[in-house]
């Protein structure tokens, strides 16, 4: 063992611990504030809360309308992810396993859409949605999310399916399965790990989005959670504990996903860097 | 779903069935391709086209490059472009921090598993959540200024001072996303040959030398990937932070092209001008994207 590397390691442990604290503290601070009464907050916002009080969370959930926003987010994210996984796995199977004319061009076409950020197409897209009556509707926002995250989903599903031995499909075809049968009976079950990973990432992307929802779902009763938080900030600037409680509600599902699926999230994030 | 009652004896597909069977690959990709073409590629053309028409009274008229002239004359857009330049300058910092941290985690600093989990968490939070949290943390009488006061430094108006605000926002952005790059770096480390590292250790090499002669050359592809994805992220995913933390202020000092597009389209009702700004942003992205393709090509040949 070289002493140089080992000394460096111990030297690094201190700033790394400080950084970890700097990462955790803002979150702890917010949770602590959300537990305080307004009076407590005004008197001393730093001291540990006197008790775990859920009044603010209750107020944010019921009287501020977070419950409504929460349901909106769950509906939109659920439908978007289901559609993304269906369309993404179909296209990924075709592009990754089936040889057909134009498959390479189609794959590259899908990839090129990765380089079109939403900001670039948001003006014409909003206009198209308005023209087709989809503006400020659930299907409109769901379609926009599907269009936004489909290239990424196809990319991951294609590279996953491309790694599956062709013999499996050949065997299934000899057994009399149609291509559609192979998709339903072989490819969907075999793709489960990739579908889980990409599905969680898509769910995070949709849940965390604010720009697309702000643009396409303008009316107050259609707000998603993230849009709701931005509205909350204006209305409750003099009631920070309630605001913090709203932030907590919006972050909790993400925290749960993270605790259970950290590995899948990391796998999805890094897939593009190791394959390419 | 399961119809295994003698699948091998299934009669040959009927002609109608064969028609769909032969076109199966196209049927499978069709919905995805329709959505991507209709809602991603076509709007791009529509938007470019739109940027050459007028707003307001001149709605629908061809106005040539008028929008682009107005755009580059607008001090707010100039500020947005200057801020893009600032992001480019800060890019090496945003790449080096996760790179160094990943190195230490890879070398199994005590507690490396814990650090990895903690650092990565903010990266999965919405920019809105992160921005909301930092509205509290960076408040004038908030925790950060209190900490500074504790070491004798005066309070800073993090989000209210035009010279400071953009650095505060970019700092928060880096705080919330370095975990993403960290995880990508760690995936790159997993492909590194451990024998090289062991050899360096046996030789008693200093950490600096190990980084320079073993890690950087071995990870060149990952480093390039992180550079490009971090740049794209800075250009396209700061909207939520800006929107909730500063809304472009104070004095327009924290504008970025994406917020400019939003403001022109949503608030000021100048969609054609917004389209021109979109086209400029797309050109910036195109340069970044082409760089990435070139990088992937080159590393593909190395493999």
TrEMBL record, chain A:
Cellular-component GO terms for this entry: plasma membrane
Pfam families assigned: BPD_transp_1
Keyword Transmembrane helix included in the entry's annotation: yes
TM spans (from-to): 12-35, 69-93, 105-126, 138-163, 194-220, 240-261
Domain ABC transmembrane type-1 residue range list: 70-261
Alphabetically ordered keywords of this record: Cell membrane, Membrane, Transmembrane, Transmembrane helix, Transport
PROSITE patterns assigned to the protein according to its UniProt record, in alphabetical order: ABC_TM1
CDD domains: TM_PBP2
Membrane topology: Multi-pass membrane protein
UniProt GO BP: transmembrane transport
Subcellular location: Cell membrane
UniProt similarity note: Belongs to the binding-protein-dependent transport system permease family.
Official protein name in the record: Carbohydrate ABC transporter permease
From TrEMBL, chain B:
Name of the protein in question: Sugar ABC transporter permease
Keywords of the record: Cell membrane, Membrane, Transmembrane, Transmembrane helix, Transport
Species whose genome carries this gene: Jiangella anatolica
Location of the ABC transmembrane type-1 domain: 81-292
Gene Ontology biological process: transmembrane transport
Membrane topology, as annotated: Multi-pass membrane protein
Annotated transmembrane regions: 24-42, 84-107, 119-140, 164-192, 225-245, 272-296
A Pfam match: BPD_transp_1
Family the UniProt entry places it in: Belongs to the binding-protein-dependent transport system permease family.
Database matches in InterPro entries: MetI-like, MetI-like_sf, UgpAE/MalFG_permease
